[in-house]
Amino acid sequence: MEIKSILIKDTTREERIQIVAQGLNQCGGSCDFCSGCDNLGGGSVEAFYEPYINGEKELRQLNEEYVSNSGMVR
User: Fold this and answer.
1) Distance between CA 54 and CA 36 in Å, rounded?
2) Do the beta carbons of residue 48 and residue 62 sit within 8 Å?
3) Is the CB of residue 72 less than 8 Å from the CB of residue 64?
4) Would you say residue 1 lies in a domain?
5) How many other CB atoms sit within 10 Å of the CB of residue 7?
6) How does DSSP assign 3-55, residue by residue?
7) Radius of gyration of the CA atoms of the chain, in A
8) Which of 5, 54, 58, 69 has its CA 20 to 30 A from that of 12?
9) Which residues constitute the domain of residue 41?
10) Using an 8 Å Cβ cutoff, are 24 and 71 in contact?
11) Counted domains in the chain
């Protein structure tokens, strides 16, 4: 599926799940049983991206929070 925009207003929940999965696949592996993000201080992947998947916060907002909180999303 080709997605032209990753904004919440332009995507469905299912598309946002796919966007997150494709983005996470960039590290070269599956997230199943990985915990790599948690080891780097970012917390669990599911918890980190849940606000985007649920349509509450844009990916940009999550990334800004991650950087401004030294890796800790609140």
Assistant:
1) 23
2) yes
3) no
4) no
5) 12
6) -S--SGGG--HHHHHHHHHHHHGGGSS--TT--HHHHTTS--HHHHHHHHHTT
7) 12
8) 69
9) 8-68
10) no
11) 1
Structure tokens at 52: 């985007």
Alpha carbon distance 9, 34 (integer Å): 30
> Mean pLDDT in each 10-residue stretch from start to end of the chain (74 residues)?
84 92 68 56 72 96 82 54
Whether 73 is covered by a domain: the verdict is no
The residue type of 72 is M
Predicted pLDDT of residue 54: 96
CA atoms within a 13 Å half-sphere pointing along the CA-CB vector of 50:
8
Residue 45 belongs to a domain: yes
How is residue 70 annotated by DSSP? Answer: T
Residue 74 lies inside a defined structural domain of this protein: no
Which pair of tokens denotes residue 51?
């606000």
How many other CB atoms are found less than 10 A from the CB of residue 36? 12
